[in-house]
Write a structure and sequence with these properties.
The chain is mainly alpha-helical. The protein is built from nine helices and four strands. The strands form two sheets. The protein has a two-stranded antiparallel sheet with strand order 1-2. It has a two-stranded antiparallel sheet with strand order 3-4.
C-alpha cells in the first residue's frame, strides 16, 4: 500500500488502537479526514516488526524478503503487477474489480472523507512512501465446536444427548448459524449468547424439576 492508503483504509482491531472511538471524541473522529496516519498506526509504521516502509519498490521488496530470510518475492514480477494496476487508475471504463469497488465506496460521503483513499498510482512518489505488512495467519475463533440440540443439550458423535451436559453462547456452535445465519460477526454474538443461554437455562430447570417430581 501507499501512505495515502494507510492513512484512510488501514484499521487496527482493539479499543486501545482506536482512541477516538473509545474516547467518544467527535473531534478526533473527524480528524481522520485530515492528512497523516493516526498515532497508533504511525507507531506501527515506525516500530512494528512486521512493517516495511520504503521510498521505492526495490527497497520495499528487499525489506520484505529480509523479514523471511528468503527471497520469496521477485521485484520485477511485482513491479509488472503494480504497473498494470496503475494503468487502470486513469481508465474511465476500467474493469479492475478493486478500483471499481473503491470508486463505488467513495460514492458515500462518509467513506470518501474518512475511510476510502482516492484511487491513485501506487508507484507515483507523491503518494509514497510504499508500505508492506507481513501477515501472520492465526485462528482467533472456532465459532463453537459443541453440537447441540434445540434444548442446548450437547450431542456426542452419534448424535445422542450427553446426560447433564448443556452448552450456551459461542461454545454451542451458533457462530456458523443461529439467529444471524452465516453473517454472524463479533458485534452480533451477544444476541446469540443471550438466546442460547436462556434456552439452555430453561432446559436445565425443566430437567431438575422433572427429576425432583419423579423422586
Amino acid at each position: 500500500m501507499t501512505q495515502k492508503i494507510i492513512e484512510k483504509e488501514f484499521a487496527l482491531s482493539g479499543s486501545e488502537q482506536n482512541p477516538d472511538l473509545t474516547g467518544k471524541s467527535i473531534r478526533k473522529v473527524l480528524s481522520r479526514a485530515l492528512p497523516g496516519a493516526m498515532a497508533p498506526i504511525q507507531a506501527f509504521m515506525d516500530k512494528g516488526e512486521d512493517f516495511v516502509v520504503a521510498p521505492i519498490l526495490a527497497e520495499l521488496v528487499a525489506g520484505m524478503n529480509a523479514l523471511t530470510e528468503e527471497k520469496l518475492l521477485d521485484v520485477d514480477h511485482i513491479e509488472r503487477q503494480i504497473k498494470a494496476r496503475d494503468r487502470e487508475i486513469a481508465h474511465p471504463f476500467t474493469k479492475d474489480l478493486q478500483i471499481t469497488a473503491i470508486q463505488g465506496a467513495r460514492n458515500y460521503i462518509g467513506d470518501k472523507l474518512i475511510r476510502v483513499a482516492k484511487p491513485h498510482r501506487m508507484l507515483d512518489p507523491e503518494n509514497g512512501p510504499l508500505i508492506a505488512v507481513r501477515l501472520n495467519i492465526v485462528s482467533r475463533k472456532t465459532l463453537g465446536g459443541l453440537q447441540t440440540d434445540l434444548s442446548g443439550r450437547v450431542l456426542n458423535q452419534a448424535g445422542e444427548a450427553i446426560p447433564g451436559l448443556y452448552a450456551a453462547g459461542e461454545a454451542s456452535g451458533f457462530g456458523g448459524g443461529g439467529l444471524h445465519g452465516y453473517r454472524a460477526l463479533e458485534g452480533t454474538f451477544l444476541g446469540g449468547c443471550l438466546f442460547t443461554g436462556r434456552v439452555a437455562g430453561r432446559a436445565v430447570a425443566n430437567e431438575l424439576h422433572n427429576c425432583h417430581s419423579n423422586s
